[in-house]
Design a protein that fits this description.
433 residues; mainly alpha; 16 helices; 78% helix
Amino acid sequence: MAAFRNKASKAGEAKVAGERSLLLGIGISAIGTGMYVPFSLVFFHHVTGLSFTLVGLVMTVTGVAGLAFMPLAGSAVDRFGAKRVNMVLYGIRALGFALYPFASSLPAFAAVALVTALADRSFSVVQQSLIGEVARGAARDRLQASTRALQNAGMGAGALLVSGVLALWGTGGFAYTAWANSLAFALAGLLVGRVRPVPAGADGPAAGRPAAGYRTVLHDRPFLGLTAANFLTALGYAALSVLFPLYLSTWLAAPDSLTGAAFTLNTALCAGIGVLVAGRIRRSGARRTRSAALGAVLFAAAFAGQIVLGTLRPGQSATLVALLAIVVVYTLGELVHSPSGGALSVSAAPEPVRGRYLATYQLSYSLATALAPSLFTALLAVDGRLPWAVLTAAALGAALALLRLERHLPAEAVHAEPPAAAPAARRPAGAAA
C-alpha cells in the first residue's frame, strides 16, 4: 500500500515539460501587472493625458465588457487549446500597452482599453486551463501554489519598480512603464511557447471540434455547486482590498498606515511560504475538497476575529497586534484554500469542455469582485461588524458545501493522488448532486 502511494506521489509530482519557462513567464507578467494595477487611474491618466473621470468611466465600461467576453474565451480554449489562446492573450496585452502612450484621444484610449480588457479579464480562465493542459494529479496543486506565490512576488516587485521609475523621472516615467509592461507580456508569451501540454486522454476532444457546449456545464449540478461555493469564498478574497481599509478608517478609527502594513504582510506571506504550505497539505494526502474547506474555515475565523475586535475596540497598540494576527490567519486561509480550490475546479472539468467549465467557474470570482464594493459599503453603513458577520456565514457555508459536494465530484478531482482503493467511475457530466 505504501509503495503504491509513493509511486503515485512521484508520478503526480513529476515536473511538466517546460515548467520553468511557464513559471518564469508568470513571474515576469506579474511584474508587468504590478507596475500598473496599484496605480491604475493615475497610470492611465498620465499615459493618455485624459481626465481621471474619463479614464475611470472607460475602465468601468471596458471591464464589464471583458466579463462578457469570458465565455467566448472558454470556447476558444476548447477549440484551439489553452497554450495557443494564452500566447494570443499575451500578444494582445503586449500590443495594448505598447499603444497606450499614443492613445491620447478618448476614442483611441477606449479602443485600446477595450481590446486589452478583453485579454486581461479572460487571462485567468486561460491560465487555469493551461495548468490543466500541462499537468496531471498533484502537479496541478503544486503549479497552483507556485503560480500564486510568483504572482504575489511579481506584483510586489512591479510596484517597487514603478515607484523607482517615478522617483527618477516623475510622472513622465509612466510612458516608459507602459512600454516595459509591453515587453514583459511579450517575453512571457514567448516563454509559454516552450511549454508542452500533456497528451489528451481517451475522452479528449477531436482536434478542433469540442464535443459539447455550455449546456453540458449548465447540466452539471455538482460543478455548479462548486462554483456557487467558490462565490461565497471569493467574497472573502475581496475583503482585504475593499472592506478592510474602510473598516479600519471608519469603525476602528485606525490610521491608514495599518492598511499598508496588512497588505505588505499578506503579500510577503503569500510569496514566502505559499509553496511550503501547499506542499505540506499535498504531502499529507488531504482531499482537495477538505483542504479547500479548511481554508474557508480559516477565513471564517479571521472574519469572526474582526467582529470581536470591532466589539472590544481596544487601544491603538492592541488593535495593531490583533489586526496583524487576524491578517496572518486570513492569509493562511488563502494559502490553504487557493491551490486546492484551483486544482479542484481544473480537475473537475472534463477535458473536452475544460475551457467552458473554467470560464463558468471564474465568473464566481468576477461576480464577487463586482458585488463586493456595494455590498460591503451598504452593510458597513448599518454596523461595522455586520459585513464581517455576513462573510463569516458565507465562508462557513462554502466549507459545508465543499464537504457535501465531495461524494458527487469525480474521484480524480477530489484526490490529488489516486486513492488506494479502486477509484469510483467518473459521474456523467449531467449527474445530479
